[in-house]
Amino acid sequence: MITVFETWDQLMKQVGTLSEEDLRESINYEVSTYKRKNVISRMHQRYVKLKAKRERQLLIDGEMLL
């Protein structure tokens, strides 16, 4: 689900509720449409945090190698 943020406050309130996939889609849409650097940066920070958490768990569970 692509989420478009109209305001910085809206971004800050909702970015923590989005899944990794939602963030990936929203980042790609933002990059190709609005190109707002601060919005892209904040969404990417959250995306990387979720991705690292998921990958770390896969490593711990022995389901992934680097």
Sheet/helix structural class? mainly alpha
N-to-C CA distance: 29 Å
Tell me the strand percentage band.
under 5%
* Biggest beta-sheet profile: none
Number of domain units: 1
Morphology call: elongated
The total strand number stands at: 0
What's the average pLDDT? 97
Helix content: 55-70%
Return residue spans where pLDDT drops below 50 for at least 5 consecutive residues.
none
How would you sum up this structure in a few lines?
The chain is mostly helical and 66 residues long. The chain is built from three helices and no strands.
Structural overview:
- This protein has 66 residues and is mostly helical.
- It has one domain.
- It is 68% helix and 0% strand.
- It is built from three helices and no strands.
- It has helices at residues 8-14, 20-33, 37-60.
- The N and C termini lie far apart (29 Å).
